[in-house]
Amino acid sequence: MHPFVELDRVSLSYGGGTLAVDGLSLTVEQGQFAAVVGPSGCGKSTLMKLVTGLMPPTRGGVIVDGQEVAGPLKICGMGFQNPTLLPWRTTLRNLMLPLEIVRPHRHKLRRERAGYEAEAKRLLASVGLAGFEDKFPWQLSGGMQQRVSLCRALIHGPKLLMLDEPFGALDAFTREELWAVLQDVWMERRFTGILVTHDLREAVYLADVVYVMTARPGRVMSVHRIDLPRPRNLETTFTPEFGRLVHALRDEISNVREAVR
Ligand SMILES: Nc1ncnc2c1ncn2[C@@H]1O[C@H](COP(=O)(O)OP(=O)(O)OP(=O)(O)O)[C@@H](O)[C@H]1O
Ligand SMILES: [Mg+2]
Fold it and tell me: Residues of the chain whose pLDDT is less than 70?
């Protein structure tokens, strides 16, 4: 196995002195899908900012794909709780946005637009949105917008996908549908993934490995390997093994929350 994301005893203090994470170490292997869970405010979004190069660590090192992270990463796609689509752009044009910004696509886009558009349409079809290319975000449901947002994070073929509570704003049924969608695209493309979530069932459904963080200043408290066979589906979530894994995570997080009180 080849480590793709490596944090080595990382600390980050925000201006004003808030120590958000301290002594945070974690490794995600290439092609692995990791989930990060932990109490609110423990530094999960901070971890995302460190890995994507949006914030430099105060101490320690962050290595992605064999290189020390020194600024915003181009090989990375990102998704957030709100889909953040541009309302004046159609689905297809929202998808093309990263290609207009990220090199080398920016330079190739004019000559190879047809090829890029075909790829965008293929990606949309793979998340069940064939035929919605010309709709505007306000013509789509929340779940559809989040699918578009996922496609946009993947359009430039990133080696790393970072998701910060991507399904938090969706109803339970839509959320569970999107677990399957995300698992499908990951199984097809095998990028390395890091998913921050408060939903422990979501973590167990999607991840190969779940990292549990302590309360702030956050560091990794424990690591749970999830060896459930893939593809997982809703039936998987009703198996005793799935229940046992979720339970173990729930107990740990309850203990952290108790300790803080
Ligand atoms: N830009 C910032 N400036 C100062 N402090 C910050 C900043 N961003 C986050 N913090 C602080 O750092 C700590 C960790 O925040 P972070 O957003 O990483 O937590 P989180 O685990 O993502 O929480 P949640 O689960 O609620 O999203 C918090 O105490 C927060 O107040
Ligand atoms: Mg957060």
Answer: 260-261
Q: Residue 209 belongs to what domain range? A: 1-75+160-177+192-261
Instruction: Specify whether 199 is located in the same domain as 254.
Output: yes
Q: Which of 11, 14, 253 to mutate to test the pocket of ligand 1 (most atoms within 8 A of CB)?
A: 14
Residue 10 sits in the same domain as residue 133: no
Considering the domain architecture, whether residues 143 and 172 belong to the same structural domain is answered as no
Distance 165 CA to ligand 2 centre (A): 8
186 found inside a domain? no
- The pLDDT value recorded for residue 261 is 64
- Ligand 1, CB within 6 Å, residue ranges: 14, 16, 18, 20, 40-46, 216
Q: Whose CA is nearest to atom 16 of ligand 1?
A: 43
Q: Could you tell me the CATH number of the domain that includes residue 15? A: 3.40.50.300
What would the two tokens of residue 133 be? 């290319």
| pTM of the full structure | 0.93
Sequential DSSP letters for 100-159: HHSTTHHHHTTTTHHHHHHHHHHHHHHTT-TT-TT--GGGS-HHHHHHHHHHHHHTT--S
pLDDT on residue 67: 95
